[in-house]
Amino acid sequence: MPVKDGIEATKEIFDIDQKVKVIFASADMSVKEKALSMGIVGFLSKPFSLEKLVKKIESLISKARV
């Protein structure tokens, strides 16, 4: 199976279903703007803690309820 980067994988996910909510994680901050422009709902800089991931998810759930 060919190796894909996160941007390519995210594009393929959105090609299948635009409703999918994607939190993108990368150590390469240069991809942040590209990922955000694709429609991701959140970005985490690697390495990140489980606590940061949970807080990001909770924040997104709170925004969705409004």
From TrEMBL:
SUPFAM superfamilies assigned to the protein according to its UniProt record, in alphabetical order: CheY-like
PROSITE patterns assigned to the protein according to its UniProt record, in alphabetical order: RESPONSE_REGULATORY
GO BP annotations listed: phosphorelay signal transduction system
Pfam families cross-referenced by the UniProt entry: Response_reg (PF00072)
InterPro entries: CheY-like_superfamily (IPR011006), Sig_transdc_resp-reg_receiver (IPR001789), ST_Response_Regulator (IPR052048)
The Response regulatory domain, residue ranges: 1-61
Family matches, as PANTHER family: TWO-COMPONENT RESPONSE REGULATOR, TWO-COMPONENT RESPONSE REGULATOR ARR22
Name of this chain's protein: Response regulatory domain-containing protein
